[in-house]
Amino acid sequence: MQIYPACPKLNCLRYFVFLQANSLAVKTKGSKKTKVNIVTLGCSKNLVDSEVLLTQLRGNGIETAHESKKDDANIVVINTCGFIDNAKQESIDTILRYVDAKEEGIVEKVYVTGCLSERYKDDLQKEIPDVDAWFGTRDLSRLLKQLNANYKHELVGERILTNPSHFAYLKISEGCDRPCSFCAIPLMRGKHISKPIEELVLEAKNLAKKGTKELLLIAQDSTYYGLDLYKKRNLAELLNHLADVEGIDWIRLHYAFPTGFPLDVLDVMASRPNICKYLDIPLQHGSTRMLQLMRRGTTREKTEALLNTIREKVSGIAIRTTLIAGHPGETEAEFEEMMNFVETSRFDRLGVFPYSHEDNTHSYSMADDVPDDVKQARVDQLMDLQQGISLELNQQKIGKTMRVLIDRKEGGSFLWAHRV
Ligand code: SF4
What would the DSSP string read from start to end of 182-198? Predict the structure, then answer.
């Protein structure tokens, strides 16, 4: 593997490159019939993008697979994630694995798209010249052209699913207009663009025809829906239209944002039986000073008031949130405030991330002053606290009868998602 000249700005990327050289043992060589293998990294929004690409390529009569383990594709498209360090590492590992496969003659072309490519394309081109072409997050037409395909408008609303068809992600918008200090997503996904209600209803109808029962609504910020297109927050209206789609039993709302939360959504949630009494709403911290430093546009008091309103308006609702530990400036006292916030808010589900110092974000201009081991210790403390809370909440469900959606059978047991 070629060792690239030192590049201070790309130290982290160069380090990832060096680590992985020559790691893949391979079997066969020689040219093949055109077949594209799409590899997806990162979040559910990336997965939807890969499914749209898959649908368009098959619509052009091009044989296409998703995450094929067989060595029968001569072209690989890697849809990368560039969110935080671990995700970047995984994306670079995957790119290098396929660059090695190309060197070994297993694949002929390696194309890279998605967030990491959008964010670091210029540098990556220099660092990994063996990749045939790089594409951004809004480059579908150009990527299709590169694959000798044309964008087919008649396929809008159609999507081939890569997961079991009883559930599907429905991406209601792209990009984000929020200024959160720690977040690089707007750098990779651009400004917020809502998808028209008609297009989303068509997509939901087509999915229902294929047996989809559960729709998981996703976006960078789902509660911002409509502000660009309809000049008002229009998530409630969208939910009502989707709830009218025959065959869709469950609609689950993810990635809500607390500031400016459209309360009419709660009325729709409470009144429509096929909208899950479930809300995923990342809150990020429990201290007012930290929320302001993170540019979340809210306070602890306003957050707690919102949580109370949500629970009052939608009886029995399950709330999931995510928090960040170790953001620049976070003191021990503010961490204790967050512990107290988790203790008193009693979330049904909680995810906690250690702060990641991301270049070109607002926080990058601050000193990353919380040591990594302290960040991780704070994450662990919060998750330990949550484990006790989740256990108590789950124990309260013992003896209750619930409607569940079976995800899969493993040995003698069924794995399911239950509806609340
Ligand atoms: S709302 Fe989410 S995606 Fe948008 S900037 Fe904030 S954290 Fe990032």
Answer: T--HHHHH-S-EEPPHH
Instruction: Indicate if ligand 1 lies below 6 Å from the C-beta of 51.
Output: no
Q: Residues 59, 241, 138, CA angle at the centre, nearest 5°? A: 40
How far does the chain reach from its first CA to its final CA, in angstroms? Answer: 53
User: Which pLDDT band, with edges at 50, 70 and 90, does 21 fall under?
Assistant: very low
Question: Which residues, listed in sequence order, are joined to residue 37 by a DSSP beta bridge?
Answer: 65, 76
Tell me, using a 6 A CB cutoff, whether residue 257 lines ligand 1: yes
The CA distance from 204 to 171, in Å, is 11
Whether residue 186 has its Cβ less than 6 Å from ligand 1 = yes
Question: Is pTM beyond 0.85 here?
Answer: yes
Ligand 1 pocket, 180 CB below 6 A? Answer: yes
Report the alpha-carbon distance of residue 274 to residue 260 in Å, rounded.
25
Say if residues 412 and 308 touch (Cβ distance below 8 Å).
no
Is residue 100 within 8 A of residue 62, CB to CB? The reply is: no
Alpha carbon of 315 to those of 122, 180, 243, 248, 311: distances in Å? 51, 31, 19, 22, 6
Any ligand 1 atom below 6 A from CB of 176 = yes
Q: Please tell me the chain's helix, strand, coil percentages from 3-state DSSP, rounded to the nearest 5.
A: 40, 20, 40
- For the segment 76-91, the average pLDDT, to the nearest whole number, is 95
Compute the distance from residue 328 Cα to the ligand 1 centre, in Å: 17
Give how far Cα 146 sits from Cα of 103, 120, 218, 361, Å: 21, 20, 29, 32
Structure tokens at 134: 């790089």
Give me the pLDDT at residue 417, please. Answer: 60
